[in-house]
Amino acid sequence: MIFSYKYVPHTMEKMQQFLDYIFYKVWCRASVSTPYSFELFNKKYQLKNIIVSFHYDDTKGGDLFNKTIEEVYKIFQTYTKKQKEEVKKWYKSNNNIEQLCINNPNMTAITYNQLALIDLGLSEKFKNFFPKLYGKDIIGLKVIKDVIGNIDSHYEKFIEKNGEGMQHIAFAVDNIEEAIADVKAKGARMIDETPRYGAGGAKIAFVHPKSSNRVLVELTQRDK
User: Fold this and answer.
1) Is the pLDDT of residue 4 over 70?
2) Least crowded by CB within 10 Å, which of 14, 17, 26, 85?
3) Domains of the chain by range and CATH?
4) Where are the alpha helices (DSSP H) in 57-141?
């Protein structure tokens, strides 16, 4: 941020809670003796309701959401405890944005290509799932919006509480992969070394604030 601000809860925090539950309470506890079922989500009833609704709906995003959760569960069923701990370390580091931004040496994000060295199949599943999770095909579905709210409303609430000001600077680019390569070639560090999907389904990537005088800079590419 370019100015001091009052924290405003983001609707995506609810989705992150769901992801944490899926990862730690479902995938990481997968075993060959426990088949995949809706009962695995009994302790997170809102998430279970979403999964059950997707099961009976005919939506592309809902199918991807449910299919990926089940397929990754089956991959984790084959993992040893040591393998699960390796993937836990990746997940924890990649989701600790504050520590990544202050360059904590104990929190090193890894890419999908690096994850592929652990398990190519898992890397491909995650690469296909997580970027699309925040696109309109999933986050824009009514069954999810009814639970977590409208993601775009966060900006209105932020301005209402903090007043107007610059949150970050975004640059529209024609080819985000080339833009990332260009930024890195000039010696800057990226938070996202590969693009991911942001609000509205745009491809986005953030430059590390330490490389831009503590100003958060975003690269964004929208399909024409």
Assistant:
1) no
2) 85
3) 12-147 (no CATH), 168-221 (3.10.180.10)
4) 60-77, 81-95, 97-101, 112-116, 120-133
